[in-house]
Structure formats: structure tokens, C-alpha cells
Specification:
about 325 residues, alpha/beta, 5-stranded parallel beta sheet, 12 helices, about 40% helix, binds iron/sulfur cluster
Length: about 325
């Protein structure tokens, strides 16, 4: 049997990431620099570096944005507190929060209004979690594992609901929700969970791939939550899996006696990195590439209204002539 590459499909950019990147590109085109982005627009080192080279400044706090300048909020979302501070500082803002993250914020607000205690399943300090918790800080308790469910100190008849970060592992989340339901049978929540379509599809695809590929390379940055989850899913399914930012991170020893290598990419990973990895593997004899598609994705999100409005008011090429 010749050495082969199995390519997961879907992989790479999701609709929320495409939208966030489009927003920065359009903002650069329409407004130019200075242009600021609060946090990384998406969690990928190559995407961020590319925008830095185009003059975009990435900041960790709004204090680093000069008064009157324009700042884009990243795809992971922000807390209302940040929004208020931007208004107070008279900054011009564009919100690139993924609509699926906004949906979780709205659910948190709804439960808060109805005076629920909200159990947010997610990872501490992740920007999405920080933003969601900011919607209802006095109502939300964060849990990251089943053990933490056991440590919850709420009355058995508490009025509670759960929400989840969008980029978790499907299996881990299912386990935590089951534990929550055992302790609090009255708990309410979304029909399944808030894990987004892109996370689910990429996890299912890599799980499928792990049945045949001996080694799985997950292309994504170390701080990308959904990429890390892809590694875990592949390992759980029996493959040897590695998270790599790009070809420089591949250790040839991983490929010894390996006939089939699976490749996937996190939701914030550009496709050119996938192509580079395929080319790199070619020198080790992996010439045959087979795409393994588990589902057809066709999801698109509209641009934020503040940007749509500006674009609509722009003179067309014809008008400019
Ligand atoms: Fe939105 Fe899901 Fe992509 Fe996150 S991974 S940006 S929630 S579509």
C-alpha cells in the first residue's frame, strides 16, 4: 500500500472566522489605519501576523486604543462592560463577535432576567467565556469538568439553566450535562448544547478520519480552543494526534512506519497552511491525497450593520469615475 494523506472535510475556516477576517479587511479598505483589534481577531498566529503586516494593531485592553480611534471587537465576543468603556472613551467600534457567540450572550441575558442561576460550561479565562460571564456576572457559575459539577453548592431545587462555550468537546460536554441533570433534574438549557455547527462538524470529521489514519496532524495555534479539542477527539478515537502551527512543528519521527496521515485544521486556520503541510509530507512519500467528507457545510453570516451601512454609502466605481 502506498503512503497516503487523508484530508478531513469540513476543516479550517468556519463562517464566524470568515466574517471576522472579512470585517478587518473591509475596515482596512474603507477606513485604513490606524485600526485596532481588541485581542486576536481569531486565534491563529498566521492570521494575526498577516494583519499586523498590513498595519493593524492588536491590543489587550481598550486603554491602548488612542481616543477617537477605531477598534474591532474579536470573533470571541466581549462583555457589556467593554462596550460601555468604548462608548465612554468615544472610540469608533465594529463588532466582529460571531453571531453564534452572540446567541449564547442573549440566552444568558434571558436567564438572568428570569432570575436563574446559570451554569456556564467552558474554560476559565478563554475570551469567549469572559465575554459571556460579563453579561450576568452575579448569575453565572463556570464549570469545566464533571468534578466541578459535584462541587457546586446550590440548593437541590434551585432554578438553574446551563449554557456552553461554543468550541468545547462534544463528548466532554455531554458528560458534564449528564452530571448536571443527575444533580439538578429540573435544569434547563438549549435543546442539545451551544457547541456550534463548525465545532461539531470538525470533531465528527476528525473522529471519522481517526478510524483509518494512524497519525493525525491538527493544524492550528496553541491558543485555539477548537483546534485543541480536535486533538483530544482524535486521540480518544485511537489515533496519535499532534497540534501543529505549521510545517515547522512537524517532527519526522512521528511519521516512522506510518502509512496514512490524517490532516485537519481548526476553525481559525487558513487553508494555505493545509496545502503547505501536504507539500511537506510529499518529501516523505505521501503522494496520494484523499479527501474524506463527512458533511457539506454551507453557512454564511451577514456583516455587522455598522459596516454594511458604511459600505452601502460608499460611491461605486462608476460614480467615482
Ligand atoms: Fe462562530 Fe463556531 Fe466559528 Fe466560533 S467556531 S467563530 S462560534 S462559527
Amino acid at each position: 500500500m502506498s503512503k497516503q494523506i487523508l484530508l478531513a472535510s469540513p476543516r479550517g475556516f468556519c463562517a464566524g472566522v470568515v466574517r471576522a477576517i472579512d470585517i478587518v479587511n473591509l475596515a482596512l479598505e474603507v477606513y485604513g489605519t490606524p485600526l485596532y483589534v481588541l485581542n486576536e481577531i481569531v486565534h491563529n498566529a498566521h492570521v494575526v501576523k498577516d494583519f499586523r503586516n498590513k498595519g493593524v494593531e492588536f491590543v489587550r485592553t481598550l486603554d491602548d486604543v488612542p481616543a477617537g480611534c477605531r477598534v474591532i471587537f474579536s470573533a470571541h465576543g466581549i462583555s457589556p462592560e467593554i462596550r460601555k468603556r468604548a462608548v465612554a472613551r468615544e472610540l469608533k467600534t465594529i463588532d466582529a463577535t460571531c453571531p453564534l457567540v452572540t446567541k449564547v450572550h442573549l440566552e444568558a441575558l434571558r436567564y438572568k432576567r428570569q432570575n436563574y442561576t446559570i451554569i456556564l460550561i467552558g474554560h476559565e479565562h478563554h475570551e469567549e467565556v469572559v465575554g459571556t460571564m460579563g453579561e450576568a456576572p452575579d448569575h453565572i457559575k463556570l464549570v469545566g469538568s464533571s468534578e466541578e459539577v459535584d462541587q457546586l453548592d446550590l440548593p437541590a431545587n434551585a432554578r438553574i439553566a446551563y449554557l456552553t462555550q461554543t468550541t468545547l468537546s462534544l463528548d466532554d460536554t455531554r458528560e458534564i450535562i449528564e452530571r448536571l441533570r443527575l444533580r439538578y433534574p429540573q435544569i434547563e438549557g438549549p435543546n442539545v448544547n451551544d457547541i456550534c455547527y463548525a465545532t461539531q462538524n470538525r470533531q465528527n470529521a476528525v473522529q471519522h478520519l481517526s478510524r483509518t489514519a494512524q497519525v493525525i496532524l491538527v493544524i492550528g495555534s496553541a491558543n485555539s480552543s477548537n483546534s485543541n479539542r480536535l486533538v483530544e477527539v482524535a486521540e480518544k478515537a485511537g489515533a496519535q494526534a499532534y497540534l501543529i502551527n505549521d510545517t515547522h512543528r512537524i517532527n519526522p519521527a512521528w511519521l516512522e512506519n506510518v502509512e496514512s496521515v490524517g490532516i485537519t485544521a481548526g476553525a481559525s486556520t487558513p487553508e494555505f497552511l493545509v496545502n503547505e503541510v501536504i507539500q511537506y509530507l510529499g518529501q516523505f512519500g505521501y503522494k496520494e491525497v484523499q479527501e474524506v467528507q463527512t458533511v457539506d457545510e454551507d453557512v454564511h453570516f451577514a456583516l455587522p450593520p455598522e459596516l454594511e451601512k458604511t459600505l452601502a454609502g460608499r460611491p461605486t466605481e462608476q460614480m467615482r469615475d
